[in-house]
Amino acid sequence: MTSSAGSSRTSAPRQKQRRSSRRSGHTSGRDSRAQSALGDFQTLPLEIFQMVLNYLSVKDISMLSMVSKTISGLLINYISTSSGSRRLLLQDFHRPELPGRREGASILEHYKALGLLLKRCTLLLPTRDRLKYVHKVLSGVSCFKLNGCASPLHCLGLQCYGVFLQILTAGWDELECHRVFNFLWELSNLARKVQTVVSSKPGSARRLELRIRLFCRGVLLSPGSHRSDSAFWLTRILKPWPMVNQARLLYIIFGPVSSRDGHVVWQKMIEGPTDETSLKGLADAIKLLYGTEAREWTADDVISLVDELSVVPQEWLMENNARLLLLSGNSICFTFLASKAVNGRAVELARLMVFMALVCEKDLYCMDWAVKMMQKVCKVFSSPWERNNFLQCLENTFAHMLMDMLQAVLAGERDEEDSSFLNLFHLVNAQANFHKEILYMAMGNNSSTT
């Protein structure tokens, strides 16, 4: 009994020893696997490893992050350190050089590379965790915030943030991109800010209008993005709002601005004829929404948006409407005109057609384009009477506009540019060239060969 009890007591420590050796063997196995994942860096203390990183470019660090999960984890820790932040989060956004010049291009390229680095480092994390980590890293950069920069017109911060996000989210599926948009929307409190500008009197919140414009164009609609990406982000910005607010918001983001202070010029389309430069941003946005990339928009949606836009903040001059349609492309232009024809708005359609001819004359477009567009629209009418009524309205509009302009010239209504006489001159030429193209078409000749 004594000997057996003694043998059992002596065997217990041996069992503990074996369990201890198994545990130590398991731990050493994990350590060895981690060390093998570090490769030659396993011999370096963490401080020396981070010092080595200071000598590597961002692109090289990005490549290094793909070596193993262990190294990727070390890089994530490095990016979060104060030395890593100072090294990687460059904040020289206010150089006097323009974005297209060398210095501006250099910092934009840096943030493209940084976006790729964080994309690779966070590859295995869920989208929500990736966004939280990225926000934690970038939260110290004030120029990345909607109201963070004191001089936003002379700052590259939002553009750098935009190219960073563009690279980070490239290849993400639509659901993930929805989460990105919602994260940014909530983070910047954009819903409340947009509500303020679209429900206030135009121009009453000029600074906020400017901030929203710069944030949307710089961050969400980053220049150089693929059309499908731009269509997605623009849809996310506009779709939550009623049509009238969509038009107002579209004007804030893409409408004309003052060259002096960058604020939106609300009276530009109302006070007088404008130029192509003032309308190009709006036209490009309309083409984007009308294209195949914007799957959530129907042709009727886009036409309604253009119609609503033409009264923001008040009814535009018809010449500016015509110029916007020309810049928006053949498909949108025809669809818009055809909708007028189908709805029996012959007088309005005739006026718009005359102003299109005037814009073609002023801006040196081929007049046969306007005539062919008119011919195409004529086929939309359901009866010969409706078509003939439209053509009669067209000729009456030419005559009334000529008489009104002639009366203004005879009354001596002249300004420094003598615009009354110039308008009359352009309209007379527009009418002559418009009817010349009709005659060529009627006689079976091609104007380009005569």
Uncertain runs with pLDDT below 50, 5 residues or more? 1-29, 96-103
Order of helices and strands: HHHHHHHHHHHHHHHHHHHHHH
Q: What share of the residues does DSSP label as strand, in percent?
A: under 5%
Number of strands: 0
Organism: Nicator chloris
Domain F-box: 38-88
Region (Disordered): 1-36
Biased composition (Polar residues): 1-14
Short account of what is shown:
By secondary structure, this protein is an all-alpha fold. It has a domain at 347-441.
Structural features, described:
The chain is mainly α and 450 residues long. It has a domain at 347-441. 70% of the residues lie in helices and 0% in strands. It is built from 22 helices and no strands. The protein has helices spanning 2-38, 46-53, 58-64, 69-80, 82-88, 102-121, 127-138, 157-169, 174-187, 190-199, 206-220, 227-238, 243-254, 268-271, 276-290, 299-309, 318-328, 330-342, 346-362, 367-378, 384-410, 419-442. The longest helix has 37 residues, at 2-38. The chain is elongated. It starts with a helix and ends in an 8-residue tail after the last helix. Mean pLDDT is 87; it is low at 1-29 and 96-103.
